[in-house]
Every structure is written in C-alpha cells, then in structure tokens.
From TrEMBL:
Residues 1-320 form the Reverse transcriptase domain. Pfam families: RVT_1. Belongs to the bacterial reverse transcriptase family. PROSITE patterns: RT_POL. This is Reverse transcriptase (RNA-dependent DNA polymerase). GO terms for molecular function: RNA-directed DNA polymerase activity. SUPFAM superfamilies: DNA/RNA polymerases. It comes from Litoreibacter ascidiaceicola.
C-alpha cells in the first residue's frame, strides 16, 4: 500500500472534487487574514442557492454596470507607490464561475487543454494550483514548498545540462491579461472571434463573469484566489504552446524553459539561442496583452549563483550574529534595506517572533524596537502579519498606560503610507482583545463592528442573495471570543523554522 501524496494538482481532480476544493475559504482568498475571517459557511450557502439556477435569476440589476462589485485590498510592494491589488471577488460571482468551470463537460475540456499546453516537454509549468492532502499543511504552504522544490532546486539540477540562464517575468501579469484571451486559450482564437457572444462556450462564460465583476473591463483579471490562478494558468499555458510553435519554426533545439506562473527561467548552452527565445516569448505575450519586465530580465553564465535568490545568499550565516533583541532587529533591518520585501526578510522576522514570544519581561527599551520594527514593515509590506504579531508582543511588554499611545504612533506612520489597509486589518486583530480601538481605515475592519456591514456592492442582487453577503456570514464569532492579546506564531507562520 502506497502513502497518499502530500498534495494533488487541482487540474488532476475530478470535477466534483475540484468544485469542493475551489469552494474552500483558502481557495476563495489566499491572502493572509486573521483567523476570524472565514468564508466557508457563506460560500456553501451561495453554492446551494445557485445550484441549478442561472446567475441572471438572482439579479435585479445589471451587474456589469456597477462599481466596486469586488472588494480590493491594495497591497503596497515597496511602502511607496508600487502596489498590487488583491481582490475579494464578489462571492456570488465567484461561486458562479466555480460552477461554470466544474460542470463535467467543461472540466473535461479544461483538463484536455492543460494536457495540450504541456505538449513540448522542454517548456515546463510548475505553478498549477495545488491542494494539500495534509490537515497540518495549508494549500498556500504546499505551494510555497513546491516553489522551492520545483523551481530553485530544479534550477540547480539543470546547471548540469546548461551553461546559461535568462531570468525574466511579466510586468503586472494579472492586471494585463486580456479577458478575451481566456476563450482563445480554451477554444482557439479563430473560433472565439467568430462566436464572441456564444455563452455555450466556457471561455466566453468566464470572460463575461470576470468582466461583470470589474465594471465590464477587458484588461486584467482579479488576483488572490485559486480560481483566478487557474484561469491565469490557462492563458499562460496557451502562451507556452504558442512559444513552443515559434521556437520550432526558429529551429532551436537545445533549450529548457521553466515557468512558475509569470516567472520564466530560460536555459540554453548558447546565449544567442536564449536571447532569441526571450524575444519570441515577448512577441507571444504581446499578442495576449502582456509584456516582459526589462528591469527583471537578465542573462547569466553562473547558473548556480543566479538560481538562488540574492536575499538568501546575503542572509546565510549572518543571522548567527544576533545578540540582544534590538541588535537582532537591526540586523533584520540591514537585510531588508539590501533586499526589500524579500522572502528572507519574512523568514527572519518569523524567527524573531518565535524568539520574543518566549520573553516574559525585558529591560530593553520597547520604543526603539517598535521604531525599527515599524520601519522594516513600512518598506516590506509582505511582513505585515508577522510585524503585527511582534508588535502585539512589544505592546504587551510595555506599560499599560503607554499601549494606546504606542499604537497611535505606529498607526500615524502607516496613515502616511499609501495602500496600507492590510496592516490595519492585522493591527485590529490584537487591539480588539486589548480593548483599544483606534480609527482603522480599511473597510474590511468595519465587518467586526457591524454584523450587517456590506463589503461588496450587491445592489444588483435580490434581497435573499444579498443577505448572504453581510458580515455575519464570514466573521467567525467563536474565534473572536478566543482571541489573545498577543498574536501567537502559529496564527501567522506556515513553517516553524522557515522552508530553506
């Protein structure tokens, strides 16, 4: 008897199992939120209401003409002006798309197309959504481990076969995907152009529903769910197939392309061939509305060195220099200055959190640590959950009469940072049990204050369906009642000791 694999590719599941997987809370929104946000119950109720019912039958208005149908959390990339939108798709539209995609005949088509996309084994996609088979590991943790195993370690192995590698990625991938390219990927460009309004075609159904969720825009798809990750992979898989045809026409034989979502590694023994493939890729993507990022495109003859992210190379061994708490944070600050918003910064802060979580009291001054920690977070937005967890501990270690003052100091810093709603969500997580309630600007924070709060514009839905989208449907009251004032490591960390 063989052991069950640690994970299953979503695309390898049956239509029924795929539907079940996509209707999980963590599939609906894969961004980090506090534990009292849970969308399973709401999605299950909508799934039941939409079973055998056309979306139009629950509408009282034209959804495509509405603004703010989805809720967007703008996530800063650098603490300045670069940002990435993470969208909580309107749950009714999300469930409707899951139904469209996982109808038995539709799912068979999708599985057949993904097999077609991977026809040339020299172009390999290693980023198809994964579903964990372990109760101890989330789908997100499984995906991160897969990145390390399938991309970085695979790249190290490929150094035995190839002398050169080009790294490149797509600029604003999700925001650039042309929605009409979804039917092209599933049905071919020619047929799709002949039948743009044929709603028997799965690609047209998905195209229309995505556009409806975004005020009929054709540029871009939502980012933040397993569903739209799979749809992005359809378009990118289609581009893999077109690239393989273009390379064949060019007569290039000795190469290997490793793709993780919109991140490409092009291996070759001839730098001219690698450059030619990159040019062909740029042309293929251009026809689909996307373009390569010139600032992230580089060629190297040092395959091993370029296969490991620079932040990891920088940090290896240096963390042993840490001494007291302030110096430990300053060392992480140095890393974050050299490699902002990198995975190594996130892992370093996670380890610091585990260290400080064991501290009962300290003679070290709290405010300098809060200052260094806040500066790290402002310039490294991916660490907001860990930052908030550490801040909750530092505030708990401070004098009771200083706690509200410290929180206001930190919040005032973030109020000057564009797109910092995510940190407001996480600071609310520990200020609530502390009995401190600053003015949080992120709309999602209002869901804890008002059970009837409507996050999504749902005026186009009938009253029964609209009621399923109120805050009481996705705020877990039982979890709210168990909140501690200090956020424990297990609430914000997927791995106990990092993953590399």
């Amino acid at each position: 008897m063989t052991d069950e694999p640690e994970h299953t590719r979503l695309i390898d599941m049956s239509d029924a199992d795929a539907r079940k997987a996509l209707l999980k809370s963590e599939s609906y929104f894969d961004f980090d939120l506090p534990i009292y946000f849970g969308f399973d119950r709401m999605l299950s109720k909508i799934d039941a209401k939409l079973s055998g019912v056309a979306l139009q039958d629950v509408c009282v208005g034209k959804v495509g003409e509405q603004e703010k149908v989805n809720h967007t959390i703008f996530h800063s990339k650098d603490g300045k002006y670069a940002w990435r939108p993470q969208e909580l798709i309107n749950p009714v539209l999300y469930v409707s798309m899951v139904h469209q995609l996982t109808e038995p005949d539709a799912w068979k088509l999708v599985q057949a197309k993904f097999a077609e996309y991977s026809g040339d084994q020299r172009i390999e996609c290693v980023s198809l959504p994964l579903i964990s088979n372990s109760e101890k590991k989330t789908d997100k943790a499984t995906t991160i481990l897969s990145w390390w195993q399938e991309v970085e370690q695979r790249s190290l192995s490929l150094s035995l076969e190839y002398e050169y590698v080009i790294h490149t990625d797509v600029t604003d991938c999700y925001g650039s995907i042309y929605t009409h390219s979804i039917p092209w990927a599933l049905h071919g460009k020619s047929l799709s152009k002949k039948k743009p309004n044929d709603q028997t075609l799965l690609g047209n159904q998905l195209d229309r529903t995505i556009r409806w969720s975004r005020n009929n825009q054709t540029n871009g798809i939502p980012q933040g769910s397993a569903l739209t990750n799979l749809i992005a992979e359809m378009v990118l898989g289609y581009s893999d197939m077109l690239l393989a045809e273009a390379i064949k026409e060019k007569g290039i034989e000795d190469f290997f392309v490793l793709r993780y979502r919109d991140d490409y590694r092009i291996f070759s023994n001839n730098p001219a061939d690698a450059e030619a493939i990159t040019k062909l890729l740029a042309e293929v993507l251009r026809d689909l509305g996307m373009k390569l990022n010139p600032s992230k495109t580089s060629i190297s003859s040092e395959v091993i060195k370029s296969s490991i992210k620079q932040d990891k190379m920088h940090w290896i061994g240096k963390e042993k220099r840490k001494r007291n708490l302030v110096k430990h944070l300053l060392l992480i600050h140095e890393l974050s200055s050299e490699h902002p918003n990198s995975g190594s910064v996130a892992i370093a802060l996670s380890k610091f959190q585990r260290r400080i979580s064991k501290v009962k009291e300290t003679k070290e001054p709290i405010l300098p640590m809060v200052g260094v920690l806040t500066d790290i977070a402002i310039h490294n937005p991916r660490v907001y959950p860990s930052f908030s967890a550490i801040l909750s501990k530092l505030v708990a270690l401070s004098e009771p009469n200083e706690r509200e003052w410290i929180l206001e100091l930190v919040l005032n810093k973030f109020r000057r940072v564009p797109y910092s709603g995510h940190v407001h969500i996480w600071m609310q997580r520990f200020s609530l049990p502390m009995g401190v309630q600053p003015d949080f600007l992120e709309p999602l924070c209002k869901a804890l204050e008002n059970p009837d709060f409507e996050l999504w514009n749902s005026t186009w839905l009938n009253p029964e369906m609209r009621n399923l989208l109120r805050a009481r449907q996705y705020i877990e009251q039982e979890e709210l009642g168990k909140l501690s004032t200090v956020i424990p490591p297990e609430e914000v960390q997927m791995f106990e000791n990092g993953y590399y």
